[in-house]
Design goal:
- The chain has a single domain (about 15-110), classed as RNA polymerase II/Efflux pump adaptor protein, barrel-sandwich hybrid domain (OB fold (Dihydrolipoamide Acetyltransferase, E2P)).
- About 20% of the residues lie in helices and about 35% in strands.
- The protein has helices at about 30-35, 85, 90-95, 115-125, and strands at about 10, 15-20, 25-30, 40-45, 50, 55-60, 65-70, 75-80, 100-105.
- The strands form two sheets. The protein has a six-stranded antiparallel beta sheet. It has a three-stranded antiparallel beta sheet with strand order 4-6-7.
- The chain is globular, with a radius of gyration of 13 Å.
Amino acid sequence: MAKVNEGLYYSETHEWVRMVDGYALVGITDYAQHALGNIVYVDMPDVDDEVSADEEFGAVESVKAASDLISPVTGTVTETNEALENTPGLLNTDPYGAWIVKVRLAEDGLPGNLMDAAAYADFCANL
């Protein structure tokens, strides 16, 4: 069973959102990193790029496969996690600590279709 953290929002495409001081930190879930295996590269948007909920904003590559990152929020990228450029495996070792992008949300930028921890755990259990 994949680890699920309380206090985060989750998407059906296995990205998580943590709200911090009005910004959204976005990363991939423990379920996603287990499915991908050893992550070797993270393609991230640039600072000031716009991201839209349910649209691709980057990709993660592992020794097994590449997978698109689908934004769970709408807004403007204000920061990328530069540590992932040299150490993409942080997504494997600490999936809920190693965020990928920080986003300043647009108005209504946090969609209502995101799940809480209990709903996401149920969702994963039924995959």
